[in-house]
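seq:
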Amino acid sequence: MTTLAVPAPVRWRALQKLARNPMGLVGAILLLIVVVAGVFAPWLAPYPPAEVHFATPFQQPATVGFALGTDDLGRDVLSRVLHGTRASLQVGFLSVLLAVVVGVPLGLVAGYWHRLDAIVSRLTDLMLAFPFLVLAVGLAAINGGGIGNAAVALGIANIPTMIRIVRAETLRLKDTDFVLAATAMDAGPVRILGQHILPNAISAIIVQATVIMPAAVLGEAVLSFLGLGIQPPAPSLGIMLSDAQQFLFRTLWPGVFPGIAIAVICLGFNLFGDALRDALDPKTVSEGH
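struct:
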């Protein structure tokens, strides 16, 4: 028995539609810049992020040796922004991975088996009763700081949304002709879920991952700002904002640049995610719009 594969012309039309979306291209360019900055931060940063220069605190941007200036301890802002972006991407990727690994199987189970749906849905509703950041802050306070703990807290907070998305896709797909045909040919539930429903739900999962990523980046910044995320002296965009707030009346730059970095990351993922959602919409793709 073969799975229902997306025809090559349909895939090509989806890529063409994504390439013709100007906002999607802007988002892709922003993401490329962010990823390059984060991945190659150790090589792009002119100084170690925790290196202090006590003789040159509060340097203005475009100062010789400090392109984005320095903070109250004389640490290079550019180096800290690059490494902070790297940390944000790490936390975001790990939290998305956790949400997918846990949320996708639970969503498939809830959508396919009615009896288990009641249990999974009630647990999901219970978690959704707490606002995303409140739940993440509570979990981070219990587990402590660090990249790993922040990623786990944000990943757990995003699991209910992933469960709902996958459950809805499973409910939609299990009544389609190809799934009913597989059931009539005595295919087992595991085979139906793995070979028929999951491959056709991948697009919705990918789009949801692009939604979770900026939320995780913002969540990491909030946790670090509150002292519950990445701990000093490790660089974090949230820590930079927290450190800069007490010097706002003296200089704005140590807080402006990490704020811009957070905005660029979130804007890039949101623009690209919206374009990806439109490009992978089965109705418009199949119709060739």
